[in-house]
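Why does residue order matter? Because the sequence determines the fold. Keep that principle in mind as you read this record.
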Amino acid sequence: MERELPACPVETTLLMISDKWKVLILRDLLDGTKRFSELRRSVGNVSQKVLTANLRQMERDGLVHREVYPEVPPRVEYFADRKPGGESQAGHQGYERLGNSL
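Structure:
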C-alpha cells in the first residue's frame, strides 16, 4: 500500500526525512558511498535494528540506493543520488538548498 504524498515538494521532502536518523544517514551518504558498518559508526548511537529499518524505508522512498555485490563475504553499499563510488549528482545541491532555505 503506497502512502499518499502532499502536493508540495518541500512538504514531501520533510515528510520523507522527518526522522532524526534519516537526516543523519543522508548527511553521511552525501559525502560518499558507505557500507552498513561505516554508516553505523558515522551516524552515532543508533542500534542495528533502527538503522536497518530506516535504510529500508529510505530505499523504498527512493532517497537511498543499495548495491549488493556477489562476493564472499557479501558486500553491501549504500549511496544517495549517485552511482556506487561515483560523484554526487544534482541531488546534493537540492538537499543543500532545502537546508539553507529553512
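Confidence is low (pLDDT under 50) at residues 83-90.
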